[in-house]
TrEMBL record:
<keyword id="KW-0472">Membrane</keyword>
<keyword id="KW-1133">Transmembrane helix</keyword>
<feature type="domain" description="FHA">
    <location>
        <begin position="25"/>
        <end position="73"/>
    </location>
</feature>
<protein>
    <recommendedName>
        <fullName>FHA domain-containing protein</fullName>
    </recommendedName>
</protein>
<feature type="compositionally biased region" description="Basic residues">
    <location>
        <begin position="130"/>
        <end position="149"/>
    </location>
</feature>
<keyword id="KW-0812">Transmembrane</keyword>
<dbReference type="InterPro" id="IPR032030">
    <property type="entry name" value="YscD_cytoplasmic_dom"/>
</dbReference>
<dbReference type="Pfam" id="PF16697">
    <property type="entry name" value="Yop-YscD_cpl"/>
</dbReference>
<dbReference type="InterPro" id="IPR000253">
    <property type="entry name" value="FHA_dom"/>
</dbReference>
<dbReference type="InterPro" id="IPR008984">
    <property type="entry name" value="SMAD_FHA_dom_sf"/>
</dbReference>
<feature type="compositionally biased region" description="Basic and acidic residues">
    <location>
        <begin position="104"/>
        <end position="116"/>
    </location>
</feature>
<feature type="transmembrane region" description="Helical">
    <location>
        <begin position="193"/>
        <end position="211"/>
    </location>
</feature>
<feature type="region of interest" description="Disordered">
    <location>
        <begin position="99"/>
        <end position="165"/>
    </location>
</feature>
Length: 305
């Protein structure tokens, strides 16, 4: 009988010792393994070790992270191992492996302590590894088996709710023809509303323009009427003492009464020229004061618009 001994020398399970007499045993984090490890870097089935013709071979499932005596193992390949080696499974977990056999003849054919080979016999490479139970030695840390549980929302209510009629929610399929019909109907109902809104908007804009124009014209008429009323103060009282600008103002008024706009504007321009002429008294101006000159100039500018 051949007995394999495993002693974990580093990692979360340091100090665990196991002995195996079965032909195949597995090491990993899943509960189905013969040796269960708590290292988070360990896969569910990390490595498998098999006995063939009195010799042991190891197979890594974890890529190139497994090392034997400092040498990295190829992934997914069976490799002969010596009768006493140190195996590193991860950055944390490392164990010492050794085995002894009652058949001394097999020892002569095994590789040395510091060497291993990959020429595993074909029948061993193709032979599937079966799940085995541990026969003796200390057991690793026990784990609770995960049991499926019914999951609910945090509020405790089921995710799927019944309708008011007591039936489960159902889907109703809409035909393409019905979709097009509904879209056409919706478009027909929307078009008159859009056109109506557009027409109302246009009419409102036109009304604002007309209102603004009418208001402007009304304001202008009021200003002109007020200017004609105020300019009467500059006509003078006696015709024998009328000044040149007063005669032009009177002529402009007569032209306005005849509806002779051209003559009216001519006489107002004459007065405007006299107001802007040089050589007038800088204190009394044309009308007797600068303030009166400025007001008369403003009134004439309103009448000439």
């Amino acid at each position: 009988m051949t007995t394999a001994k495993i002693q974990i020398i580093s990692g979360p399970n340091q100090g665990v010792n196991d002995e195996f007499t079965s032909d195949v045993f597995h090491i990993g984090s899943a509960e189905e393994n013969n040796l269960i490890l708590d290292d988070p870097e360990i896969l569910e089935q990390h490595v498998s070790i098999a006995l063939k013709e009195g010799r042991y071979a190891i197979r890594s499932q974890a890529g190139n992270s497994v090392e034997i005596n400092g040498t990295t193992l190829p992934a997914l390949e069976w490799v002969w191992i010596p009768n006493a080696v140190t195996v590193r499974l991860s950055t944390k977990t490392k164990f010492h492996f050794s085995f002894s056999s009652q058949n001394d003849d097999n020892k002569a054919d095994q590789p040395g302590k510091d060497e291993f080979a990959t020429n595993l016999p074909p029948d061993t490479e193709s032979q599937p590894l079966k799940k085995q139970k541990k026969t003796s030695g200390q057991s690793s840390k026990k784990r609770k088996r995960k049991v499926p549980r019914f999951r609910q929302e945090q509020s405790g209510e089921p995710l799927l709710k019944f309708g008011k009629d007591g039936q489960l929610p159902s889907l109703s399929l809409v035909q393409e023809g019905e979709k097009e019909k509904d879209a056409t109907k919706s478009s027909d109902e929307t078009s008159p509303l859009l056109y109506g809104a557009l027409i109302v908007s246009i009419l409102f804009s036109v009304a604002l323009i007309l209102l603004d124009t009418g208001t402007t014209k009304s304001t202008k008429k009021k200003e002109v009427a007020q200017a004609r009323k105020e300019i009467l103060d500059y006509y003078g009282q006696q015709e024998t003492t009328l000044l040149p600008y007063q005669r032009d103002l009177r002529q402009a008024r007569l032209a306005h009464s005849r509806k002779d706009k051209k003559s009216e504007r001519y006489h107002y321009r004459q007065v405007f020229s006299l107001l802007n002429a040089e050589g007038k008294n800088q204190f009394t101006g044309l009308t007797g004061s600068k303030a009166k000159d400025e007001k008369l100039q403003h009134l004439i500018s309103v009448l000439l618009r």
